[in-house]
Design a protein that fits this description.
single chain; 309 residues; Rossmann fold; Histone, subunit A; 2 domains; six-stranded parallel beta sheet; 6 strands; 9% strand; globular
């Protein structure tokens, strides 16, 4: 992308969000933008938060981190509790500080929920109930994710149509609220946006499917060469933590458990990553506020219009 041709006239207090599917080049693009703007980067990648997860989350390299100051990269441990509500609070507090010295701040990541939490806020929901959560976890262990899916379809068919049905933690959270309150989880999702005192510009990286698949496959091969298997082995004792319920580590755990060969685990990782990228794009395509860009073409006009409209 030709950043050098951009006309850099900004409105004060602008959050520039660079988003897209995994392996689309968000990190490189965000660093170029931040260097040009003389600003800092906020990570909205919910797995890069954890300091123990480096290779499998494609964290920025030490060299990249040295180029531009990054926030929320490796700032907590997989043993600590962290959630989207805390991230929203931490990020809004940080933005208040950064906008004192920067007109524009860059945020980048592929976690749509976390990006939306910063840009629009999240609905208030009931606190967790440990007893109900334990009951749901027992049901998950006994009946698998199909059990959770069936229960959610029964209790809240509206949310069943929206949720990522492959994510057991989101399914259990929805069921927990349903059981606690006697109301559908979807009834707490009012969708009322919070007013933010900064401008938001969202640029989405649009890459042809075939090229994205190639980039995903190449990235996973590089992860394996860098030592993903060894990193997963170190994290194995913490495998039931929510932070490790993610593509890459789950497949390595299956291999370490002896359920498949290493080649099968790597191929499954590539397939699941492609599926994850597809879910990311499905989420992002619902947002009419995203301006989609081709990272290989000159986008000086798009950028200038985006920041000044």
């Amino acid at each position: 992308m030709d950043f050098g041709a951009w006309n850099l006239e900004f409105i004060k207090n602008t959050l520039l969000v660079i988003l897209g599917p995994t392996a689309s080049g968000k990190t490189e693009l965000a660093i170029k933008a931040a260097k040009l703007l003389g600003t800092e980067i906020i990570s909205a990648d919910s797995r890069q938060f954890y300091r123990e997860l480096t290779i499998g989350t494609a964290k920025p390299s030490p060299e990249q981190l040295a180029e531009v100051k990054h926030h929320f990269v490796g700032h907590i441990s997989i043993t600590e509790k962290y959630n989207i509500s805390l991230f929203e609070q931490d990020t809004i507090r940080l933005l208040d500080e950064l906008f004192l010295s920067h007109d524009t701040v860059v945020m980048t990541g592929g976690s749509g929920l976390y990006i939306d939490a910063v840009c629009h806020g999240i609905d208030e929901q009931p606190e967790h109930d440990p007893a109900i959560r334990l009951h749901l976890q027992s049901g998950y262990k006994a009946g698998g994710i199909e059990h959770l899916q069936a229960e959610l379809l029964r209790l809240d068919p509206a949310y069943y149509r929206d949720v990522d049905l492959s994510n057991p933690h989101r399914l259990m959270r929805a069921l927990e609220v349903c059981i606690m309150t006697g109301k559908p989880f979807s009834s707490f999702r009012k969708g009322k946006q919070k007013e933010r005192d900064f401008k938001i510009v969202k640029l989405g990286i649009d890459i042809p499917r075939a090229e994205l698949v190639e980039r995903i496959n190449r990235r996973i091969d590089e992860m394996m060469a860098k030592g993903l298997l060894e990193e997963a082995g170190i994290c194995l004792p913490f495998r039931h933590n929510n932070a490790l319920n993610t593509v890459g580590y789950k497949e390595m755990f299956e291999y370490l458990d002896g359920h498949c060969s290493l080649e099968e685990a790597v191929e499954k990782m590539k397939i699941n990553t492609r599926r994850y990228a597809k879910r990311q794009m499905t989420w992002f395509r619902k947002d009419p506020g995203i301006r989609w860009i081709d990272p290989e073409s000159s986008t000086s006009m798009i950028f200038n219009q985006s920041l000044n409209r």
